[in-house]
C-alpha cells in the first residue's frame, strides 16, 4: 500500500513548491498542542504556528467544542440579505477591542481577500466622493500582502510575482523606516504625497513578515499615518500576521498614536482552525457608500462570507485570547525570546536578531547578502526537521512564531536548533569571509 505522502505526490500541487525537485511531503495525522504527529508516529514541534495561523495549539478542545456545536445548529447561510448570531457577535466583540475609530466589519475568506476588500473600499470611497482620479497606493519596499492580483500589486515586486508584473497596477514604493532611517523614509513619503492621485497607504504594522521579520517602531509609523491623513490619504493596516497578540498587545496598531482607517485580519482570526478574512473600516468610509443609488454600494462578496462555523471558531479563539492565561503565555514567550536574543546576537555568524512580542528572527551571516534564495535555506530547513522541528526559513533568516501554549522546555528545543544553525553558518562561510564576520 502506498503511504499518504506517496498518494499526495500522485494527485496534489503544493504552494511555493517546485514539484519536480521537492521531497515527498510529510504526512501529518493529528495535532496536540504545539506538536504535529506524522503518519510514522514522529512528533514535530510547530515553531511557526503552521504559517502563523495557530494561536492556542492544535486541536484545542474549546474551539473544537464550539465548532461542533455550530455544525449541529447552522453550517452556512448566504450573507446577502441574511445574517446569523455568530457573525454579529464576532463583529461586536472585535469592534469592542479594536482601535476606537473602527466601526464596521466586512467578512471574506482569507488574508488576500481581506486586503482586496480594503483596496476596493479605498478606491470606491474616492470614486463615490467624486475623486476617481485618486487610485494610487503607497507601499513599503519588500512588503507582502497576499497572492491575489490586487494584493500582489501592493506587494513588493520580486521573483514570486515576476510573471504577472505586466498585469499589476502601478504603486509608489517607499523604504521601510527601520531604526536609523526614519527621517529618510519620512522625506520619501512627503515627496510621494505631493502627487494628487494618491489614495491609500497600505502597510504591515511594525513587522514585515515575509521580508524576514523586518521590524520598525510605532512612533515613526504613527508619523507616517499623520502625514498621510493630512494629505487626505486613507491608511490600511494589514494585521493578517500581527493581529491577535503576536507583537505583544492584541493588535500592533494598538501601539500607534495615529490610527489606520481600515484594518485587515485573517490567520489567527479563527485560531488557525478555519479559513476566514475580515476587513474593518472607520465610519466615514462606510458612510461614503450609503445612498439611494444602488450603484454606490460595495459590490464584493464570497460564497462563504461570514461562514457560521468559521465565526464560531473565531469567537472561541477570541475568548481564549482575551484570558489572563493567554496574556501570561505571550509575556512568557516574549521574555524567553528577549533572553535568547541577548545571548546570541553578538556572536560570530549572526548578522542581526529581531524580536517583538512572540516573534523572534535570527538573520544569519553567510558571507553574502540577505536573500530568500540563500544557499543556507534548505540546510536550515533540513537541520530543523532532523530535530523534529517545523521551521520555514526565509532564506538566511530563521524565525520563531510559536503557538502561545508552547512551554519553556519546548522553547529551549527551538533555541538549541538556532544555536546549531550558527555553527552550520560558520561551516558554510568561505574562509576569506570569516574575519569579516568575526569583526562584525
Spatial strand order of the main sheet: 4-12-11-10-7-5-6
Low-confidence stretches: 431-440
CA-atom Rg in angstroms:
22 Å
The secondary-structure element order is HEEEHHHEHEHEHEEEHEEEHHHEEHEEHH
- How does the overall form come out from the CA principal axes? globular
How would you state the average pLDDT, rounded?
A: 95
Largest sheet: 7 strands, mixed
Count of strand segments? 16
Q: What would you call the structural class? A: alpha/beta
Distance between the termini: 54 Å
- In what range is the share of β-strand residues? 15-25%
Helix content: 25-40%
The tally of helices reads: 14
Q: Notable features of this structure?
A:
440 residues, alpha/beta, 7-stranded mixed beta sheet, 4-stranded mixed beta sheet, globular, disordered C terminus
SSE diagram, text form:
Layout: H1 4-11, E1 28-32, E2 35-38, E3 43-46, H2 49-52, H3 61-71, H4 85-97, E4 102-108, H5 111-128, E5 136-140, H6 149-153, E6 172-174, H7 182-192, E7 198-203, E8 207-208, E9 214-215, H8 218-230, E10 234-238, E11 262-265, E12 277-282, H9 283-287, H10 308-321, H11 324-344, E13 350-356, E14 359-364, H12 376-386, E15 389-390, E16 397-400, H13 408-428, H14 434-439
Parallel strand pairs: 3-15, 5-6, 5-7, 7-10, 10-11
Antiparallel strand pairs: 1-2, 2-3, 4-12, 8-9, 11-12, 13-14, 14-16
Helix pairs in contact: 3-10, 4-10, 7-8, 11-13, 12-13
Amino acid at each position: 500500500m502506498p503511504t499518504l505522502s506517496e498518494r499526495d505526490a500522485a494527485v496534489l500541487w503544493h504552494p511555493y513548491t517546485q514539484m519536480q525537485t521537492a521531497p515527498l511531503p510529510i504526512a501529518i495525522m493529528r495535532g496536540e498542542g504545539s506538536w504535529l504527529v506524522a503518519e510514522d508516529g514522529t512528533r514535530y514541534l510547530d515553531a511557526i504556528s503552521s504559517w502563523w495561523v495557530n494561536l492556542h495549539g492544535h486541536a484545542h478542545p474549546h474551539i473544537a467544542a464550539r465548532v461542533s456545536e455550530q455544525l449541529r445548529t447552522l453550517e452556512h447561510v448566504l450573507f446577502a440579505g441574511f445574517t446569523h448570531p455568530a457573525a454579529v457577535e464576532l463583529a461586536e466583540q472585535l469592534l469592542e477591542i479594536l482601535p476606537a475609530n473602527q466601526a464596521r466589519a466586512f467578512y471574506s475568506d482569507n488574508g488576500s481577500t481581506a486586503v482586496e476588500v480594503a483596496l476596493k473600499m479605498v478606491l470606491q470611497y474616492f470614486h463615490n466622493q467624486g475623486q476617481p482620479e485618486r487610485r494610487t497606493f503607497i507601499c513599503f519596499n519588500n512588503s507582502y500582502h497576499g497572492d491575489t492580483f490586487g494584493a500582489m500589486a501592493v506587494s513588493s515586486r520580486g521573483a514570486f510575482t515576476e510573471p504577472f508584473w505586466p498585469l499589476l497596477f502601478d504603486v509608489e514604493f517607499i523604504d521601510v523606516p527601520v531604526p536609523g532611517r526614519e527621517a529618510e523614509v519620512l522625506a520619501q513619503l512627503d515627496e510621494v504625497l505631493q502627487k494628487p492621485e494618491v489614495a491609500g497607504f497600505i502597510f504591515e504594522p511594525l513587522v514585515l513578515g515575509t521580508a524576514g521579520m523586518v521590524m520598525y517602531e510605532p512612533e515613526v509609523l504613527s508619523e507616517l499615518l499623520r502625514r498621510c491623513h493630512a494629505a487626505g490619504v486613507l491608511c490600511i493596516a494589514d494585521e493578517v500576521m500581527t493581529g491577535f497578540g503576536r507583537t505583544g498587545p492584541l493588535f500592533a496598531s494598538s501601539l500607534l498614536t495615529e490610527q489606520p482607517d481600515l484594518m485587515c485580519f485573517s490567520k489567527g482570526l479563527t485560531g488557525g482552525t478555519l479559513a476566514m478574512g475580515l476587513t474593518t473600516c472607520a465610519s466615514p468610509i462606510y458612510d461614503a457608500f450609503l445612498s439611494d443609488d444602488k450603484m454606490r454600494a460595495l459590490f464584493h462578496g464570497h460564497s462563504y462570507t461570514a461562514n457560521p462555523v468559521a465565526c464560531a471558531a473565531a469567537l472561541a479563539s477570541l475568548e481564549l485570547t482575551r484570558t489572563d492565561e493567554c496574556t501570561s503565555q505571550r509575556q512568557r514567550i516574549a521574555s524567553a525570546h528577549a533572553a535568547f536574543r541577548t545571548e546570541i546576537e553578538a556572536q560570530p555568524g549572526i548578522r542581526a536578531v529581531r524580536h517583538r512580542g512572540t516573534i523572534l528572527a535570527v538573520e544569519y551571516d553567510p558571507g553574502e547578502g540577505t536573500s530568500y534564495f540563500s544557499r543556507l535555506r534548505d540546510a536550515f530547513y533540513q537541520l530543523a526537521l532532523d530535530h523534529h522541528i517545523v521551521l520555514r526559513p526565509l532564506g538566511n533568516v530563521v524565525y520563531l512564531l510559536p503557538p502561545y501554549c508552547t512551554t519553556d522546555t519546548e522553547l529551549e528545543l527551538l533555541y538549541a536548533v538556532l544555536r546549531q544553525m550558527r555553527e552550520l553558518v560558520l561551516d558554510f562561510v568561505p574562509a576569506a569571509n570569516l574575519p569579516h564576520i568575526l569583526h562584525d
